[in-house]
Design a protein that fits this description.
378 residues; alpha+beta; eleven-stranded mixed β-sheet; seven-stranded antiparallel β-sheet; 6 helices; 22 strands; globular
Length: 378
């Protein structure tokens, strides 16, 4: 009799496992044509994209649309930029907002859900509209502490694609220019939620004709951060899922023509539980704290990777985990300035969720989403 009971319980567990593993399905996603709502603000223009019938937006269509909007709204700007998400199968873009200033800076809001989940059009539209009312703000230009350029008594000659020769022979007065920000919200019910917000900087007037330096960073106000919240912490309609792993990646080598490589990354190395430190990179400096888990920061050029070691089903895995890394990328200037669009960095946030019961030992669910930041100079 005992043996029958054991097999019955095991059968229930395995059956439950198959039920859990069957979500999500592989059904084809039906996409909708985006409605583009234009709002003229004070010194900026906002574009809100969503589908009025509650259908998700296609990534390629979204990319082509916002690329044209970025160019057409600021035809005289030196730089143009935009960012679009990349989605694994089973994910859907529910809403997209982009604020563009006259000098080409952008502030972007992206909302993502699991494909097949109902999309509340009115809620998406209302959120985008409320977001559009606030004028975008950017950090002021910052002068680096160290001088950059050609040392006294030296000179550098370059030959452009058109045969023109330029000579650089003096130190320059470079400055970090903050020209964009992205906010991404991913609702992966019932497992949890992923959130990312970061700023992009460029080092201008550095006197180096061969390289262009860029930063993907947080700022002193904590506006740039990566956050994972498990379902067990959210409650309500969410399941009892905890966070079993997190990985954040800054990849500066997406466009091979740019010959992108990783410069500085912070933090790096092993960060122990309950460790606190101050991060200084480029124009920003901010405190960072580790609570109840370890983080391993590795420079695998051209990628900066932060992996999290989270105690299994313990307290820290049941609550929001927030982290604030930054990295520098170095790309080929002649290619970046060729008048074409180039993706300079891909930012990826990945998380693994498990169930708090014994099912968590047998099954896990991975959530991931990434954002490509694309620039056109000239």
């Amino acid at each position: 009799m005992r043996q029958k009971i054991v097999w019955f319980v095991l059968g229930v567990l395995i059956g439950s496992l198959f039920v859990v593993a069957a979500y999500p399905t592989s059904r084809a996603v039906q996409y909708g044509v985006p409605t583009v709502q234009k709002i003229d603000g004070s010194n900026y223009t906002a574009y809100l994209l969503y589908n009025e019938e509650g259908l998700p937006l296609n990534t390629d269509v979204l990319k082509n649309t916002v690329q044209k909007l970025a160019e057409e709204s600021t035809p005289n700007a030196k730089w143009h930029a935009y960012a679009v998400p990349g989605l694994p199968k089973g994910l859907a873009i529910t809403g997209y907002g982009m604020k563009v200033t006259q000098d080409g800076r952008v502030d972007i809001l992206i909302t993502v859900k699991r494909a097949g989940s109902p999309i509340d059009v009115e809620k998406i539209q209302s959120r985008l509209l409320e977001w559009s009312k606030k004028a975008p703000t950017f950090k002021p230009d910052r002068i680096p502490k160290r001088k950059i350029g050609v040392p006294k008594g030296w000179e550098v000659k370059t030959v452009g694609s058109n045969g023109n020769v330029k000579v650089y022979s003096t130190e320059s007065s470079p400055y970090w220019h903050n020209f964009g920000r992205v906010e991404l919200n991913y609702d992966d019910s019932p497992y949890g939620k992923l959130y990312a917000q970061f700023s992009i900087w460029g080092l201008w007037n550095d006197g180096n004709p061969n390289e262009e330096r860029l930063l993907c960073t947080t700022d002193e106000d904590g506006h740039g951060t990566y956050r994972v919240t498990p379902g067990v912490a959210i409650g309500g309609d969410y399941g009892s899922y905890f966070t079993d792993g997190i990985k954040i990646t800054h990849d500066w080598g997406i466009d091979s023509a740019l010959s992108g490589r990783l410069g500085e990354m912070k933090p790096a190395g092993t960060l122990e539980k309950d460790q606190t430190m101050t991060i200084s990179i480029g124009p920003v400096s901010y405190p960072i704290a580790i609570g109840g888990y370890k983080v391993y920061g590795d420079a695998i050029d051209p990628q900066a990777i932060w992996n999290f070691d989270i105690p299994y089903n313990e307290d820290s895995s049941h609550h929001t985990i927030e982290f604030m890394p930054s990295s520098e990328g170095i790309v080929k200037e002649s290619t970046l300035h060729d008048g074409s669009w180039h993706t300079v960095i891909r930012v990826t946030l990945w998380a693994r969720f498990r169930h708090t019961t014994v099912l968590g030992l047998l099954y896990h669910h991975d959530s991931s989403v990434w954002v490509d930041w694309t620039i056109k100079v000239g």
